[in-house]
Amino acid sequence: MQQSTQINPSLSVAGQIAKSDIAELAKAGFAMIINNRPDNEEPGQLASAEAEAEAKRHGLEYRYLPIVTGNITRAQVAEFQKLLLRGPGPVLAHCRSGTRCYLMWAAGRALFDGDSALKLVAEAAVKGYDLRVLPALVDKLEAERG
């Protein structure tokens, strides 16, 4: 199964999952999968419709929220946060490497909870994730608010 990194008790992030991973995620106690990877980003990746059908077969919620790192919007960050707050947990969010998912969570923390972007970058680095784009992203998304 795809190795995941726990960010907090309710959220873990991972790289691309395979269809066979979904049953294991259900057995491991996850209640929802969030897919932040656009379909057809890379040849051979599991399509979101197929993943959703498999997740439902195993009693998991499934949400498809495709993210392109250079084009993240405030609305996408807000939707990701809403899924985490209102959906069943714990959640496994995945993309190609897990970094986009971690970035979405960190952007939400910085934008909506007032956490320090630099502190979140440092915490992510300890877990092996490079979120150096976070401070600039937060500035951009703050400007979107008007």
Helix/strand order: EEHEHEHEHHH
* CATH topology term: Protein-Tyrosine Phosphatase, Chain A
Cross-sheet strand order for the largest sheet: 1-2-5-3-4
* Number of beta strands: 5
Rg estimate, integer Å: 15 Å
Strand content: 5-15%
Count the helices. How many?
A: 6
State the share of residues found in helices, binned by percent: 40-55%
Distance, first to last CA: 43 Å
Mean pLDDT: 95
Offer a quick outline of the entry:
By secondary structure, the protein is an alpha/beta fold. The protein contains 6 helices and 5 strands. It has helices at 19-27, 48-57, 74-86, 99-112, 117-126, 134-145, and strands at residues 4-8, 11-14, 32-35, 61-64, 91-94.
What does this structure look like?
The protein has helices at 19-27, 48-57, 74-86, 99-112, 117-126, 134-145, and strands at residues 4-8, 11-14, 32-35, 61-64, 91-94. The chain has 6 helices and 5 strands, in the order E-E-H-E-H-E-H-E-H-H-H. The chain is α/β, with parallel strands linked by helices and 146 residues long. The chain has a 5-stranded mixed sheet with strand order 1-2-5-3-4, with helices on both faces. It has a single domain (4-145), classed as Protein tyrosine phosphatase superfamily (Protein-Tyrosine Phosphatase, Chain A). The protein starts with a strand and ends with a helix. Helices cover 47% and strands 14% of the residues.
Q: Which key features would you list for this structure?
A:
single chain; 146 residues; alpha/beta; Protein-Tyrosine Phosphatase, Chain A; five-stranded mixed sheet; 47% helix
